[in-house]
Amino acid sequence: MLFFVICFSRLPDVSAQSSRGSARGLDALLQDYAYRAFVHPKTGVIFDGSVPSNLTGIQIAAMRLRSGSLYRKGFDMYKEFEIPEGVTESPYVERLVLVYQNLGNWSMLYYPLPGYSYLAPVLGLLAYDAGNLSAKNLPELDIRASGDPIMIEFQDVKPAPAGTMAKCVSFDLDGSVNFSNVESGNMCSTVQQGHFSIAVESTAPSPTPVSPSPTPPMPSGKRKKKSNTKVWIIVGSVVGGLALLALLSFLVLWAKKYRERKNLQRMEKAADVGEALQMTSVGDAKAPAATFTRTQPTIETEYVP
Ligand SMILES: *[C@@H]1O[C@H](CO)[C@@H](O)[C@H](O)[C@H]1NC(C)=O
Ligand SMILES: *[C@@H]1O[C@H](CO)[C@@H](O)[C@H](O)[C@H]1NC(C)=O
Ligand SMILES: *[C@@H]1O[C@H](CO)[C@@H](O)[C@H](O)[C@H]1NC(C)=O
Ligand SMILES: *[C@@H]1O[C@H](CO)[C@@H](O)[C@H](O)[C@H]1NC(C)=O
């Protein structure tokens, strides 16, 4: 029982953390590889990058923009992203690079979404300072759409299975997840950078009856929520264990009672057999005859209170 308690309290934590960590590690790696696409960097031109062979299936691109131009004009179509005017970044930089990611068949691996399946690949849009195009491990800038939201027009969205409803899903850089409605069949909107896709609740029953909100916690409540779920898991395991114990002892008791009853029945049967009435012959017929009278008849008048 203790073993199970330990397993259940450890597993979800570790897996959530490692996928989060590897997703951020991937962002850093893809920033590096996307920047390598700038051989003759031109502002406002999309450069497709190439990924290391161990990540085949992921597509990346990079585009450099002047901050003022981004704010005044936006960018009509950066791959699937339609960037409106009014997008600001903080801290302020003179030029920035928007790195595009299409995680293709790696989406599920880096952005697991328990209970859901993706109808489109996870796309990423991340902003970095363009000050040094050979820099690695750059921190992201915080970009915000102050007017209209950034629109994402997904290509080749798989149709949602009958009876299910496709949802836009967005992950911010902390890993918190939001769901919203799909617009015009294949469009999602966002006011900030992050990773985006269209997903649908899987019809197959999820093997683990975990709470239906796989939402990783917001940064502030992170630790609290985590330890909260841990506590719940431990409480659940303990209560489950106790219930199991109760059931077991009930079964043992019942088996004991059952055996006792069986014994009693057997004894009774044996007694019945032993007490077979003696037969006496009356003429030709046989009739049962008691060997002795069990209750002596008393005459009422003899009864003296
Ligand atoms: C893929 O290869 C690159 C460069 O060879 C390496 O830095 C990176 O850690 C590898 N990534 C994965 C996920 O294996
Ligand atoms: C994605 O597909 C490529 C080939 O197109 C393959 O090399 C790679 O291993 C696949 N990735 C995953 C996570 O299955
Ligand atoms: C740009 O970044 C690279 C790698 O971090 C560093 O070696 C180089 O000195 C930086 N260049 C400038 C001009 O800061
Ligand atoms: C999710 O929604 C909350 C509240 O509406 C918002 O503060 C947060 O930025 C959203 N996150 C993403 C990734 O869209």
Can you walk me through this structure?
The chain has 305 residues and is an alpha+beta fold. It has a domain at 22-201: Chondroitinase Ac, Chain A, domain 3, CATH 2.60.220. The chain is built from 4 helices and 16 strands. The chain has helices spanning 2-35, 67-73, 107-110, 222-274, and strands spanning 46-49, 59-66, 75-78, 81-83, 87-90, 95-102, 116-118, 123-129, 142-145, 150-153, 167-171, 177-181, 187-190, 194-201, 278-282, 285-289. The strands form 4 sheets. Strands 1, 2, 6, 7, 8, 11, 12 and 14 form an 8-stranded antiparallel beta sheet that branches. It has a 4-stranded antiparallel beta sheet with strand order 3-4-10-13, with no helix packed on it. A hairpin with a 2-residue loop joins strand 15 and strand 16. Helix 1 (2-35) runs antiparallel to helix 4. The longest helix is centred in the C-terminal third of the chain and has 53 residues, at 222-274. The protein starts with a helix and ends in a 16-residue tail after the last strand. Mean pLDDT is 81; it is low at 2-14 and 209-226.
